[in-house]
Sequence to fold (105 residues):
Amino acid sequence: MFVLFLLAPGALLTMHMYVKPKENKADLELTGLGNKRGDRRGSMLARLGNVLYWTGCLLGILLVVAAVALYSDAPMDRLHSAIYIGLAVVVWLIGRACRYVLAGR
Fold:
């Protein structure tokens, strides 16, 4: 498809040509669009799995930061810090499992 523009009287004509890019099979496989084997990398479930994974990572980081903030010389504070760190690992593992199940990674 050719489009010609006349900018002003006496100005040069500018010609633009749109060329449809060729579909590269490797690009389609990377995006998950040309997928015939059941790979879910480009699907909505894969995106949901990635969102849940990153949410688990952020919550885990917040729990570790809280554990470090609570840590002191008192034995109960050390116990609470250990519980928070254990909870952070569990939250991260749940996010990782969601990513594995939904995204197939």
User: Anything to note?
Assistant: The chain has a mean pLDDT of 76. The chain has one domain: 2-103. The longest strand covers residues 2-6. The two ends are 42 Å apart (CA to CA).
